[in-house]
Specification:
Elements: H1 9-39, H2 47-83, H3 87-127, H4 133-137, H5 147-157, H6 160-171, H7 173-176, E1 181-185, H8 192-200, E2 205-209, E3 228-230, H9 240-246, E4 252-257, H10 261-264, H11 274-285, E5 287-296, H12 302-315, H13 326-334, H14 338-343, E6 344-349, E7 356-361
Parallel strand pairs: 1-2, 1-4, 2-3, 4-5
Antiparallel strand pairs: 5-7, 6-7
Helix pairs in contact: 1-3, 2-3, 2-12, 6-8
This protein binds S-adenosylmethionine.
Length: 363
């Protein structure tokens, strides 16, 4: 343990350098080299690099969460000893605090440096069309590989599936009366939600699942009765009409897009929301009149999202959603959107986590 009372200024500066400066510099050089190699295609992004990226991401979450929690506890203990006048123990706690702070910096500082450099780096690579992590995030070893399973369990706790059936039946009762219904999920990922809905729904529904990411391990299996099909390959929801044509279908009755293609169709650089309108145009072409697009519409405050992220990243606990809903993400672009206003009637149904936005095609 470091005894802070006997440290000279130069000892302290040396310690700061070895625990903060050197890890920062090493990680900075590593991240920049990594980015340059990817940018100039000296190396390609592989399964191993994807896994490394995921591991570092987890290390950032765990190390920050536990370091801050433990440092906070040590500080509280130190304050308690100091208030009680037990100065020897207060000074020992101070030494524990300094020692722990320096040693956790050795893990936190480099992982955090990598995280910030590569956050910017990956965005730049995406803009240049060099690398799209959406492809990589959801495959085995990717950062979001476990996301659908965690969400599936959370939605089950919230009775999301039963509410989905009741609420959509209410708003789109005309569809449930049809003799045959085509239910398309263009960004199904593992298809957990769809599997559950398939179990609950009447068997006259034909479920068609697709996704842009291929090689998603553990995804739902196509059923031999022809009522539940997960189409193999990479299918971009932006081309849904031609994707359906490849399956011999010209249109659908329900398109369910939960935190998928529409969610990804816009980002902070999109000022006009043209990405959102583009997907709506495509879905419009792929729907019968009277058909509906269903998206998730829970209203989340940023402090709730931050709390949920902290608990998930630090303790692997799913307290709720860790990102805003599709509706929240696109709301600014769909209010007063000429195309959507002209062709869809919008209704919001359900409460809390189970809130949905339903766009019914009227022309
Ligand atoms: C967060 S997951 C959601 C998956 C699923 N809807 C769910 O709720 O479990 C997002 C999925 O959207 C897919 N995706 C993103 N953009 C897409 C696009 N343009 N076309 C099809 N799929 C897309 C990703 O590949 C990923 O599997």
């Amino acid at each position: 343990m470091i005894d802070a009372s006997v440290l000279t200024i130069s000892d302290f500066v040396k310690l700061l350098f070895w625990c903060f400066g050197a890890p920062f510099l090493i990680s900075l050089v590593f991240s920049l080299m990594f980015w340059i190699f990817l940018r100039f295609r000296v190396i390609s992004f592989t399964y191993g690099l994807n896994l490394m990226n995921t591991i570092i991401d987890r290390v950032v979450g765990y190390s920050i969460f536990w370091s801050l929690s433990i440092l906070g506890l040590i500080l509280l203990t130190m304050a308690a000893f100091w208030i009680l006048g037990i100065l020897t123990l207060a000074s020992i706690s101070f030494n524990v605090f300094v020692t722990f702070l320096l040693y956790c910096a050795i893990v936190v500082i480099p992982s955090l440096t990598y995280y910030f450099v590569m956050e910017q780096g990956f965005n730049a690579l995406k803009k240049r069309g060099v690398l799209d992590l959406k492809d990589w995030d959801y495959v085995k070893g990717g950062k979001l590989y476990r996301w659908p399973d965690a969400t599936y369990k959370y939605l089950k706790r919230k009775k999301w599936y039963n509410d989905f059936l009741l609420n959509t039946k209410d708003v789109a009762s005309h569809i449930y009366k049809l003799s045959n219904v085509v239910f398309v999920s263009p960004s199904a990922n593992k298809g957990r939600i769809e599997e559950k809905l398939y179990d609950l729904f009447p068997k006259k529904f034909d479920f068609i699942l697709m996704d842009y990411s291929q090689n998603i391990e553990g995804k739902a299996i196509t059923k031999s009765n022809g009522k539940f099909t997960y189409v193999d390959g990479s299918y971009d929801g932006n081309n849904l009409k031609s994707n359906l044509a490849k399956l011999g279908m010209c249109s659908s009755d329900i398109i369910m897009d939960i935190r998928g293609c529409i969610w990804y169709s816009t980002d902070k650089d999109d000022d006009t929301g043209e990405g959102v309108t583009r997907v709506f145009r495509e879905y419009h072409k792929s729907l019968k009149v009277g058909g509906v697009i269903i998206i998730d519409a829970v209203q989340l405050k940023s402090k709730t999202i931050t709390r949920n992220q902290i608990f998930y990243k630090g303790m692997n606990l799913v307290l709720g959603f860790q990102e805003i809903s599709t509706y929240q993400k696109i709301q600014g672009f769909i209010d007063n959107n000429d195309f959507i206003d002209k062709h869809f009637h919008t209704e919001i149904v359900g409460e809390g986590s189970n809130r949905l936005a339903i766009f019914k095609k009227i022309s």
